[in-house]
Structure formats: structure tokens, C-alpha cells
Amino acid sequence: MTPSQRLDATFAALADPTRRAILARLAQGDASVAELAEPFAMSQPAISKHLKVLENAGLISTAQDAQRRPRRIEGVRLAEATAWLEEYRQFWDESFQRLDALLEEMKREERQRKRPSRS
Amino acid sequence: MTPSQRLDATFAALADPTRRAILARLAQGDASVAELAEPFAMSQPAISKHLKVLENAGLISTAQDAQRRPRRIEGVRLAEATAWLEEYRQFWDESFQRLDALLEEMKREERQRKRPSRS
């Protein structure tokens, strides 16, 4: 893939709330498909489909653990997306300073996408 | 739109090389549809379709100049996308340091998407 095709795949993969929530979960630590499916109201096949999109975009990889096959985040594609946005810093920098509240709202929304934990 | 829906729209809009090239052109300064269509090997209707996607995502706006109706970049959505990526800095930070070469390659590709200028 060319850099431009990689950006296409990265941004397309990120344009979905479930896939972003999966990345948020993986940011806490590697997880198997079963572990990823658990907090979401989704079947394992549905989760697997999203994982395939993320893996094809290079945003996650599968570790060589024959039993669990845990998924992990790969940072390079996120770095490329960040590098693209960095070129537009003059446009977003001012707004960025005011985004603390927004970030909190985003995190709250992400948490609400998950089922309550069974603690 | 909720913050999550805005991110969906932003990332989907950015997942296209022509739309990214349009933003790269607008980063140089506001431009009318005709001015935007000129450097690309595309019809004005094709460009207009891409502009609609960018405008629906809030990435650009149309200035109130009845004649030219120039488009301009709006930074807030780019700031939100950057804020989302910022949450994953631990994963991309190291790669980011090595992206200078990649950025150059991306810019070269973008330039090649345009027809030679008629200077």
C-alpha cells in the first residue's frame, strides 16, 4: 500500500464507533476475541468482522499465542494519521486548547456503549 | 451530531485521497469550486460531490461571497480528530519521530495527483 492508501484504510477503519471502542479497550491491554466481545452487546462474529477491518488497516495485530491469539494495537498507522493532521495544526491548534470538555464527553459515550460490568 | 457521530463523519471524509488533496489546496488559502477543480483531472460536479462530504462533516465551510462562494477549512473537526488520536499517544509517539521521510512521500504523492500547472 502507498502512504495515501494506508491513510484511506486507517481513516476508514476509524470511522466507526465500535472499532474505536475496540481500540479503547486494547489501549488498556491486549485482549482475545472473546475478551473483546464480552463488554459489547455483540456476537463474536460481529466483533471478528470489525477486528478484520482494523487488522487490514494495520491498526492492530494478532500475537502468536496459539490459545488466546490476543489482539494488540499497532502504533505506526496511528502515527501516520497524526502526521497527516499535524500538517493542519494552524487550523486546529486553537480549537484543540478548548477540547478538554469534549474529550470527557467522548469517553463517557464510549463507556455507555459497553454493557455494565458483571462485577 | 454527538461527538462520536462527528468523529465517524470526520474520519470517513478523510478516508479519500481527493478529499485530502482538496484540504491540502485549501490549506494554501480559500478557493472557489472552479479554482478547486482546476488542478485536478476532475469535473466540477465530481469536485462538488467531494466538497459536500467535507462540508457535511464540518471540515470546510462556504464563505458568504455571492460571486465566488469560496470554501475554507474549519479547524474544529480536525481538532476533535487530533484529540482522539492524542489519547493513543503512548502507541504512536515513538513511530511519529521517524515519520519525516513518510511525510515527504505523502506530499510528493499529493502533488502527483494534480495535473501539471499551466504556468
Descriptive notes:
2 copies of one chain form a homodimer. Chain A has 119 residues and is mostly helical. Chain A is 62% helix and 5% strand. Chain A is built from 7 helices and 2 strands; from the N terminus they run H-H-H-H-E-E-H-H-H. Chain A has helices at residues 3-14, 17-26, 33-37, 44-56, 75-86, 89-96, 100-113, and strands spanning 60-62, 71-73. A two-stranded antiparallel sheet of chain A has the order 1-2. In chain A, a hairpin with an 8-residue loop joins strand 1 and strand 2. The model of chain A has no long low-confidence stretch (mean pLDDT 88). Chains A and B meet through helix 1, helix 2, helix 5, helix 6 and helix 7 of A and helix 1, helix 2, helix 5, helix 6 and helix 7 of B.
